[in-house]
Design a protein that fits this description.
mainly beta; 6-stranded antiparallel sheet; 4-stranded antiparallel sheet; 10 strands; 0% helix; disordered C terminus
Amino acid sequence: MTLSLLLVVPVGGAVGQTQSVAADVGLSARYAGSRIYFDADPTYSNITVSVSGPDGYHGQVYSERRAPSFRLADFGEVADGLYRFEITAATQVYATDRSSREPAGYNGRAPTAQRPREGVSFTGSFRVENGQVLVFDDADQET
């Protein structure tokens, strides 16, 4: 089961750089300068953040236990324009595969007995101008 939420940031009306974008799946993003901070439910693991942008920009960070932050300049030149991110994580819930049945006498202790966990994801976008992430106030969208 994968849940996702798409956030599209409008053009115009930038405000302070600490606004949080939250999802109901236990993942969220905060922006400060040229860095994106991600928060995740503390029970999540294997967290991957991917960011893509103009001129072929792409970067990816991974953390086994906690949500990583993402510094745009670590992955190349930061051009002005629209960027997109996706954060994915594994939950503590094991995925169910109804198509396979364990053989009689199987005790689940084989090295490959680890079943995959259900995942969650959160996607969004943001705009960069002069190397800084712009954050928009919801009131600017109501014009």
